[in-house]
Design goal:
The protein is an alpha/beta fold and 1039 residues long. It is built from 41 helices and 39 strands. This enzyme catalyzes the 6-electron reduction of sulfite to sulfide. This is one of several activities required for the biosynthesis of L-cysteine from sulfate.
């Protein structure tokens, strides 16, 4: 438990994580490991440590470990190594391993596809994948990426359902890789990181012995002539014989004669469904589950053999990418497609069972209750009388399993004390302990939850503790952000650390809903006061208090040995009667009216990281100096290391360009100001490609800046010295005016954290309280109104709360920096080599106080006169022309979304003028009125007349009684789209707001379906769109 163990120490019953066991298999059996581990995922921490110590693998030499970044072309180095002329052919039979998360798989796709084509002449390659990615601001278990990839590339795909079999499945995947490139996938969010006791762990010698014995069996002439499905069956049977296990490609759990059966794939899914099925079956429910262990190759005969003949309804738990895919009826999971096909053509039963798909997205969190709900969807009778009562689903026996949860802010000294407790409890060889840690960096600036389970039996519980015997809360503020009692059993115990809080103050400190739950559910309350113990003893107070309440019989000497705090533990234990007290919960708390009015905090937290939130963003303060400072630097450049820089505050390559033309494209009387601005590049050296964006480093309005300087009592000419963003040992000098005009977003919209930061400077208590409220949960509604309706700025807030007056260097620290505004370039440099053009709409609105507001950047740009200098930079984009000039391009632009397509058309026109053959060009545009918003209309029509633009689809939504949108014009020209997009392999581009994306995509799917029907092909339009995305033939740039 903790740091990576010695390689030789991994053997027999041991405490270990699934990830460590998988790394052991990879290190022991591989020639080389290619690792694509995000920094905090720790997918390769053990193998890197073993490699650094030069530990020998099963082949008698250190395994080479190469750490790589996840980016385009990932896997190319592995391919290069395998097919290098220098590759030692003696090692051709030795496996190569890849360690990655599912987030890396899309980037590995190209290399894995090439590998599968050349596999007959390659070494065995196995990819161990932690199903983990980021979505919706949290970590998610992503299996769908691997499922789709295995299906499309013909890869093997094997899943582990718990830490107890992770080593065996990693071994199985390595064996399958001897004839088929394979992926071994496991839950990378919770199960992969849990520390638990695994009994039958093979040491390196045992691993190699089993691997060699089974591999040699593959050389049998009979097995050699089997197809991939037959070989997988043979390997699995050999593995079972070698290890004494009973693994199957598909495994059934539940009632002996079920009528309703779920099918599941994935670590948590397989473990939970099997446990719930067995629990429900004990109560007579005729339900069961088939867990898919080996998804590819998919052996239909084995699935049908395992599926009980009594089954009438099959429900497939199929993971899809996102909520939109869950809602779309036409989108199906890969698993559902396979199960439906197997059932449809089944000949082993008189009538095929009905097949129902239960889709869920990657961010879905499975619990015992929603698994039971999934069973209910396929069951013909009610399973649970009261779905809110989890009693029938109590998977762990309270008589043999004790559960504990610890909550704390992740940067406190006691945050790691719970994990140390878990290690201490694990010293008892008669019990099994599982420790799971979850970090959420979005609550309280970083929250940690540690779940500890201990039992006399082996534990397999891949879900958060939901009926804890004892809960410890290290910070009373957490009670307002999380419903910690939701995970406490009735009549359980909760310990709250509340330094200096007296009993008569508790009612004010504890949230009403927390107090009410204590009273109604008869939960005992204990208060720990670390202040009595002395400074820096919070971890010891946590440990001593917990042991007193939860495990009073535990020998504290074991904890002292592990925590290395024997003296402190003895002293705290001696004073524990003063430090820890039980509080009588008044009956009146059960009927408090405040609880009904207060918002209910969430019952659980989602993991957003595997490590605590790093709050150490120390930024050296800006220092106000006088003109003499800068004069010395300019006079004695060498002594002071002075150098001139254009906008030294920016960490991107910048250029100075000058306005060449600034003209309005819409009438002055029209309410939308869309303008064309063109810059002369001069000798700036700026180069840009088609489709790229120009970043404009706009400045705040000079009059507004001077007005703020006057209000705030600053001297505009004072010199502010700040560290460089790229090297804090280099200091940069600017005037206060320059800093406010160019660097500080003083007229931008402040986030919540600004109110909290500003409160520290408020001298008026009412203002301080109001600022803290706006920065906290209770001020959420007013903050939203301020941000979205009032559109208040940093400057507005500083004027509203005059007692909060930070010094200038503090102001620079807490106010966000001005960000560059990026605009799609509306010109092609090959056509206009000395200029760059933009098409921009002025963003303006009237706030709730009646003030006319204008977007900072568009205000700045719209007022520029010819000759004015502007600081710019270039940003790459996804909008790129297809590789061949003969490939058609279909473009859909709304409003200023036409900008990149002007560059596209200019480039195609140049190619045509040079005598090159060009593909067809279909341009669809959308705006409200032709008279006012037909921007660049004469250009488009001239290009059409010249034969550059093949089709011009104009949708002016408000020029006729019925609304006509861009998707309507596309549908009217469906034959042209089919010809250009599908038959001639064109590329489609959409630029503009997000709202038309579903409708426009639906037209493309309709085109795909129409062509497939005409050619007699069976395709799923949605999946075809996904393939086109990967081929860069479906490109969106929306905002």
């Amino acid at each position: 438990m903790g740091a990576a163990p010695e390689l030789s120490a991994i053997s027999g019953p041991t405490y270990v994580t699934a990830q460590t066991l998988i790394q052991q298999v990879a290190y022991a059996l591989s020639d080389k490991i290619f690792s694509y581990s995000p920094e905090s995922f720790d997918l390769d921490s053990a193998v890197r440590e073993w490699a650094s110590r030069r530990e020998s693998n099963a082949n008698g030499e250190p395994t080479a470990v190469q750490t790589l970044e996840t980016r385009q072309g990932a896997g190319s180095i592995a391919l290069g190594y395998l097919f290098s002329r220098d590759f030692d052919l003696k090692k051709r039979h030795v496996p190569q391993s890849i360690l990655a998360s599912s987030a890396t798989l899309p980037y590995l796709r190209g290399s894995l596809e090439q590998l599968s084509l050349l596999y007959s002449v390659a070494s065995p390659v196995v990819t161990h994948v932690a199903a983990g990615d980021y979505a919706n601001d949290r970590l998610v278990s992503d299996y769908v990426t691997a499922l789709n990839l295995a299906e499309e590339l013909g890869l093997g795909l094997i899943s582990s359902s718990s830490a107890h079999e992770a080593q065996h499945m990693a071994l199985l995947a390595t064996l399958v890789a001897s004839f088929l490139p394979s992926i071994h996938i496991y839950d990378g969010v919770r199960v992969g990181h849990e520390t638990t006791r695994v009994i039958d762990v093979l040491d390196q010698t045992g691993l190699n012995r089993s691997y060699q014995a089974i591999r040699q069996g593959l050389s049998d002439t009979r097995i050699k002539h089997l197809d991939d499905q037959g070989k997988v069956l043979e390997i699995l049977q050999s593995l079972n014989s070698e290890l004494g296990t009973d693994y199957g490609l598909f495994e059934y759990h539940g009632h002996a004669e079920p009528t309703s059966v779920l099918v599941a794939f994935g670590t948590v899914e397989a473990s939970l469904t099997s446990q719930v099925a067995r629990s429900l079956a004990k109560d007579g429910a005729r339900v069961g589950v088939v867990n898919v262990r080996v998804y590819r190759p998919f052996v239909e005969e084995e699935f049908l053999r395992v599926l009980p003949k009594s089954t009438k309804t099959v429900g497939v738990l199929g993971q899809v990418r996102d909520e939109q895919a869950v809602q779309e009826e036409g989108v199906h999971s890969s698993l559902y497609d396979d199960i439906l096909a197997a059932l449809t053509f089944a000949s082993d039963r008189p009538q095929a069972p009905a097949c129902i798909e239960i889709k869920y997205d990657r961010s879905h969190q499975w619990t015992t209750l929603n698994i039971a709900a999934a069973f209910q969807r396929v069951a013909d009778k009610p399973i649970l009388q009261d779905v809110k009562d989890p009693a029938p689903l109590q998977l762990l026996n309270p008589a043999t399993v004790q559960e504990y949860t610890f909550w704390d802010v992740d940067d406190t000294p006691s945050a790691q004390a719970a994990a140390v407790l878990g290690q201490a409890l694990a010293t008892d060889s008669a019990i099994n302990v599982t420790t799971s840690t979850v970090y959420n960096n979005l609550i309280q600036g970083g929250l940690v939850r540690v779940d500890i389970r201990k039992s006399t039996k082996i534990l397999d519980a891949p879900y958060a503790v939901d009926a804890a015997d004892v809960v410890y809360v290290g910070n009373v503020k957490i009670l307002g952000d999380v419903d910690v009692l939701a995970s406490v059993k009735d009549s359980g115990k909760v310990i709250v650390s509340a330094p200096g809080v007296k009993d008569d103050e508790l009612e004010k400190k504890l949230p009403a809903s927390f107090r009410q739950a204590l009273a109604k559910r008869h939960i005992s309350l204990f208060i720990a006061d670390p202040a009595i113990a002395g400074d820096n003893l919070e971890p010891v107070v946590l440990q001593a208090s917990f042991l007193r309440v939860a495990v009073p019989s535990f020998e504290q000497s074991k904890l002292a040995t592990i925590a290395k705090n024997s003296d402190a533990l003895v002293n705290v234990t001696k004073d524990l009667d003063k430090i820890l007290r039980q509080v009588e919960v008044p009956e009146s708390w059960s009927t408090t009216e405040e609880a009904a009015e207060a918002p209910q905090p969430p019952e659980r937290i989602s993991a957003t990281s595997f490590v605590p939130f790093d709050k150490n963003e120390a930024e050296p303060p800006a220092v106000l100096k006088d003109w003499k400072t800068i004069a010395k630097g300019l006079a004695f450049k060498e002594a002071y290391g002075t150098r001139a820089a254009l906008r030294p505050d920016l960490n991107t390559k910048t250029y100075t360009v000058r306005v060449k033309e600034n003209r309005r494209l819409t009438p002055v009387t029209y309410d939308r100001n869309i303008f064309h601005i063109e810059f002369d590049l001069g000798d700036s050296g700026l180069k840009y490609d088609i489709g790229e964006a120009l970043g404009v480093h706009a400045e705040n309005d000079a009059e507004d800046v001077m007005e703020f300087i006057k209000f705030y009592g600053l001297n505009p000419d004072e010199i502010v010295e700040v560290p460089s963003r790229e090297d804090d040992s280099v200091l940069e000098n600017r005037t206060v005016f320059q800093a406010l005009a160019q660097n500080v977003d003083i007229f931008g919209r402040p986030p919540k954290r600004f109110y909290e930061a500003l409160s520290e400077f408020a001298t008026d208590e009412k203002e301080k309280k109001k600022l803290l409220a706006l920065g906290g949960p209770e001020g959420a509604a007013e903050f939203k109104k301020r941000a979205e309706v009032d559109t208040v700025t940093y400057a507005d807030i500083l004027q509203e709360f005059p007692s909060a007056h930070p010094s200038f260097h503090d102001l620079v620290r807490i106010v966000g920096p001005l960000k560059r505004r990026e605009y799609s370039i509306a010109s092609c440099q090959k056509v206009t080599p000395t200029s760059v053009a933009l098409m921009i709409v002025v963003v303006n609105w009237v706030d709730s106080r009646g003030r006319q507001r204008i977007g900072q950047a568009t205000r700045y740009l719209s007022r520029l006169q010819p000759g004015a200098p502007v600081t710019v930079s270039v940003k790459s984009s996804v909008m790129k022309l297809p590789p061949r000039s003969t490939q058609p391009i279909i473009m859909a632009g709304l409003g200023t979304g036409l900008a990149p397509f002007r560059a596209f058309v200019q480039h195609r026109a140049l190619e045509k003028a040079q005598g090159k053959e060009i593909g067809s060009v279909l341009l669809y545009m959308g705006s409200r009125h032709q008279r006012e918003e037909y921007c660049y209309g004469e250009e488009w029509e001239a290009y059409q007349a010249a034969g550059v633009i093949t089709l011009l689809g104009r949708a002016f939504s408000r020029d006729q009684p019925q609304k006509i949108y861009i998707q309507d014009r596309m549908r009217q020209t469906l034959p042209e789209i089919i010809q250009a997009y599908i038959r001639e392999e064109g590329a489609f581009y959409l630029c503009g707001p997000t709202w038309p994306v579903p409708d426009v995509t639906a037209v493309l799917e309709e085109a795909i379906a129409t062509e497939a029907k005409a050619t007699g092909k069976k395709v799923e339009p949605r999946k075809e769109i996904e393939k086109l995305k990967e081929q860069e033939r479906y490109v969106l740039e929306v905002y």
